[in-house]
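In response to the reviewer comment on reproducibility (Comment 2.3), we provide here a single inverse folding case reported in full, input and output, so that an independent group could reproduce the run without further information from us. The structure tokens appear first.
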């Protein structure tokens, strides 16, 4: 099979956020910002509070980042000593003691798996390792279909057994991958810490998983920009939100193209192949963990089923981009319809 040039797109931020028209001229406002690499993506926190000392803000940001680092150490499947790695190493053999953080994540992961009838499934790990989207530069080959078929029975969230502080994967060869939910949880943790430390106006972003607390400076002014999924440097449109979480899952973040077919990192657990239909799914929810898991879930379900599923969850809003790559079609839920502004413009113009 002819191999096309591999394209890896690690876009800096999946969602863009901008603030327009502040009370004072922008140069008089003091924003404290931190950007770092974590959980295989960019993490960015911005504090807009004007009345706190910089020491207090820096101390709060340190604590929030330390917590996110702890979540990464707990949940990463590539850190051999993480709790997730130990669960995977002990699959089919013995239960592993886990922290409350991981337990909380696994409970929610199992809930979303059940709710979506298996579209979201963190036991996708054995299939993901066949595709290996984390190491795209070294291989851009499609795994053998027989190998995929053989591993499909290992994808079964019902076989994650949780009791007290123990976790056990029932079948040997099983494994979990929290790439579709842990960033959201980490963002929620950072949010809680910043809030506890008295910070009142801020945002936390981990690779397109945002959580916002709105205060005097940002109220009514935050624009959440959705990227054009097929024009790398263009934005597609925006909506405004205040105190909520937003996440986007897209097929343009980690992918390669072989014979004009795009293979990306969001897999359909029923087939073991990349989910078809959506180009990007943006979800607004109360918590970042819900937004993270649900954007992945709806992406897997595809535009039609995914939109129905979103409508069955009254507390969330969704924008789905799909169809014609030249000019994406979209579906938007009732609560966002009037807020969504379609505006195509170059990314650089809003930075
Ligand atoms: P990103 O991690 O790039 O922000 P998502 O939140 O959509 O994007 O999560 C995609 C990640 O979730 C994949 O890289 C993989 O780790 C994991 N994943 C892929 N398919 C599924 C699935 N069907 N259910 C649960 N997790 C998945
Ligand atoms: Mg997600």
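Designed residues, in position order:
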């Amino acid at each position: 099979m002819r191999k096309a040039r591999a394209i890896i797109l690690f876009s800096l931020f999946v969602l863009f956020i901008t603030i327009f028209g502040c009370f004072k001229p922008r140069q008089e406002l003091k924003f404290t910002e931190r950007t770092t690499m974590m959980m295989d993506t960019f993490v960015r926190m911005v504090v807009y509070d004007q009345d706190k000392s910089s020491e207090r803000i820096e101390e709060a940001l340190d604590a929030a980042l330390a917590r996110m680092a702890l979540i990464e150490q707990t949940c990463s499947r590539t850190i051999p000593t993480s709790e997730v790695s130990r669960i995977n190493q002990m699959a089919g053999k013995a239960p592993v003691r886990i922290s409350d953080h991981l337990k909380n994540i696994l409970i929610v992961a199992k809930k979303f798996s059940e709710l979506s009838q298996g579209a979201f499934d963190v036991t996708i790990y054995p299939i993901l390792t066949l595709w290996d989207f984390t190491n795209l530069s070294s291989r851009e080959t499609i795994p053998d279909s027989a190998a995929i078929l053989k591993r499909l029975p290992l994808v079964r969230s019902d076989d994650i057994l949780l009791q007290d502080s123990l976790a056990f994967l029932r079948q040997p060869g099983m494994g979990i991958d929290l790439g579709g939910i842990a960033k959201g949880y980490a963002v929620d943790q950072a949010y809680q810490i910043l809030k506890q430390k008295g910070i009142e106006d801020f945002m936390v972003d981990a690779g397109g998983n945002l959580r916002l607390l709105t205060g005097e400076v940002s109220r009514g002014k935050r624009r959440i920009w959705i990227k054009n999924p097929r024009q790398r440097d263009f934005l597609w449109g925006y909506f405004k939100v205040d105190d909520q979480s937003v996440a986007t899952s897209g097929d343009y973040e980690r992918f390669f193209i072989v014979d004009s077919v795009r293979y990306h990192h969001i897999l359909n657990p029923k087939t073991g192949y990349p989910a078809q239909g959506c180009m990007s799914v943006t979800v607004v929810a109360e918590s970042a963990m819900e937004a993270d898991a649900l954007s992945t879930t709806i992406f897997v379900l595809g535009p039609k089923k995914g939109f129905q599923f979103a409508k069955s969850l009254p507390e969330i809003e969704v924008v789905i981009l799909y169809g014609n790559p030249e000019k994406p079609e979209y579906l938007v839920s009732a609560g966002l319809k009037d807020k969504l502004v379609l505006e195509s413009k170059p990314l650089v113009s809003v930075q």
